[in-house]
């Protein structure tokens, strides 16, 4: 893969040189190549086996403030030359935009660390099949109420990513990603429920065992059997850590440059203002070794760096690409392509202690629908989970809707659990909000 990385960097260098030769004032190119397998089983029989060996190159050229982009999956010299010509032709016919162009040269990641993102193993379909079947077998043997399987899947991907531009930057790295998941269906007295469990890691040997994943999928499904509706009420809501990160994904959207310069954010003009409780901090740490969201540079070659997003509840940082930064009269923060390992401060409680703190209310373990308005902050989503009284789970609930306003919800976070969810770009514990509207019967 190291040889592949060098070869791709050479292709990017050649394409950039060709763009300059053709008259582009600036140019940038990115190329990726992924090799992988995806195996799925159902009821312990193989359903699909897919092999991936994909690659593609995209180039953007600038003629002054005019921009043109083109891409190709054909990496022959003739196809690459044609792609450059198409991008230049497109640029000639676009309107000028004073904010277009490469990120500033001084922000480039000229020196960047090895983040330990690449842990290759042989792409073995037999291993994948064994892992998926073992997960299903484990789930189906837990309890006779687990009556069916919605399948298990194993994925292994080895990738190379390179980005270069006419500032002279040409960087790249290899990465790996492995995952195993299982979904099962349970039935009790005519009530059918489904749930799942999964594991994901840069290192294949650090995935949870298929037996554990199957056991978890079955137990989560069993816990949902006998679900009821609840009466419409206004109560505290505890977002389980597996869904709590979605709250922060809306927050990320609201402080991203695109939403801000379009004036389509409920957090417009809140930089330097209190937006979360004064005990809450959020740190971004893009250089965590083997982190799932770690990256030495963003999609524009801007070097990533540690950032304090929230300190004492105060918003310290917008998330800006070079384009949105120019629109706002600011500087890129290295967020082209997304965030890099957010660490949300917890308040120290265990999940059980948070249930006690909530007293009577709703524990949410699943969210459905897209009823979130980033412009106003209005929040309304379908939910399922458990009804809690006196800090003790009473019964599962489903077919309910929870509603509020994100600005109020964020300010009214009462506690964040001490066990974080680590399988995504936002690492947070369960989040307790003091009151939300719950619509049921």
From TrEMBL:
Give the domain of life: Bacteria
What GO MF terms are annotated? metallopeptidase activity
Kindly indicate whether the keyword Hydrolase belongs to this entry: yes
Q: Which UniProt keywords apply?
A: Hydrolase, Metalloprotease, Protease
EC assignment: the record states 3.4.24.-
Q: Which InterPro entries match?
A: Metalloprtase-TldD/E_C, Metalloprtase-TldD/E_cen_dom, Metalloprtase-TldD/E_N, PmbA, TldD/PmbA_N, TldD/PmbA_sf
Query: What sequence ranges are listed for the domain Metalloprotease TldD/E N-terminal?
Result: 27-91
Question: Which positions, given as ranges, span the membrane?
Answer: none
Q: Which residues form the Metalloprotease TldD/E central domain?
A: 119-225
The Metalloprotease TldD/E C-terminal domain is annotated at 232-440
The record's similarity note reads:
Belongs to the peptidase U62 family.
Q: What is this protein called?
A: Metalloprotease PmbA
Gene it is expressed from: pmbA
């Amino acid at each position: 893969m190291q040889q592949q990385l060098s070869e791709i960097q050479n292709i990017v260098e050649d394409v950039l040189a060709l763009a300059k030769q053709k008259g582009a004032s600036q140019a940038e190119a990115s190329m990726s190549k992924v090799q992988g397998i995806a195996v799925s089983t159902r009821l312990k029989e193989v359903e699909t086996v897919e092999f991936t060996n994909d690659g593609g190159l995209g180039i953007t050229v600038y003629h002054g403030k005019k921009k043109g982009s083109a891409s190709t999956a054909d990496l022959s010299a003739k196809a690459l030359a044609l792609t450059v010509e198409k991008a230049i032709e497109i640029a000639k016919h676009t309107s000028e935009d004073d904010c277009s162009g490469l990120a500033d040269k001084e922000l480039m990641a000229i020196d960047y660390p090895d983040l330990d993102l690449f842990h290759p193993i042989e792409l073995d379909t037999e291993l994948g099949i064994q892992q998926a079947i073992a997960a299903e077998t484990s789930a189906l043997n837990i309890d006779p109420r687990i009556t069916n399987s919605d399948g298990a899947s194993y994925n292994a991907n080895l990738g190379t990513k390179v980005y270069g531009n006419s500032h002279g930057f040409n960087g790249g790295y290899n990465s790996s990603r492995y995952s195993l998941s299982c979904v099962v269906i349970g039935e009790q007295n005519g009530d059918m429920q489904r749930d799942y469990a999964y594991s994901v890691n840069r290192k294949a040997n650090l995935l949870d065992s298929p037996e554990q994943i199957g056991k978890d999928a079955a137990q989560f499904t069993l816990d949902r059997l006998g679900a009821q509706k609840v009466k419409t009420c206004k109560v505290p809501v505890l977002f389980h850590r597996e869904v709590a990160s979605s709250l922060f994904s809306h927050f990320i959207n609201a402080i991203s440059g695109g939403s801000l310069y379009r004036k389509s954010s409920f957090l417009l003009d809140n930089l330097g203002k209190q937006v979360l409780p004064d005990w809450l901090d959020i740190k971004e740490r893009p250089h965590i070794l083997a982190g799932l969201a770690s990256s030495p540079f963003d999609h524009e070659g801007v070097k990533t760096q540690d950032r304090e997003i929230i300190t004492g509840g105060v918003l310290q940082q917008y998330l800006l690409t070079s384009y949105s930064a120019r629109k706002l009269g600011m500087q890129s923060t290295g967020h082209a392509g997304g965030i890099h390992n957010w660490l949300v401060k917890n308040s120290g409680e265990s999940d059980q202690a948070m249930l006690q703190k909530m007293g009577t209310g709703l524990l949410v373990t699943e969210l459905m629908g897209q009823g979130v308005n980033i412009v106003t902050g209005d929040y309304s989503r379908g939910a399922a989970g458990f009804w809690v009284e006196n800090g003790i789970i009473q019964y599962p609930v489903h077919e309910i809707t929870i509603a509020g306003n994100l600005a109020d919800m964020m300010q009214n976070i009462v506690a964040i659990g001490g066990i974080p969810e680590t399988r995504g770009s936002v690492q947070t514990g369960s989040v307790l909000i003091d009151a939300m509207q719950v619509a049921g019967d």
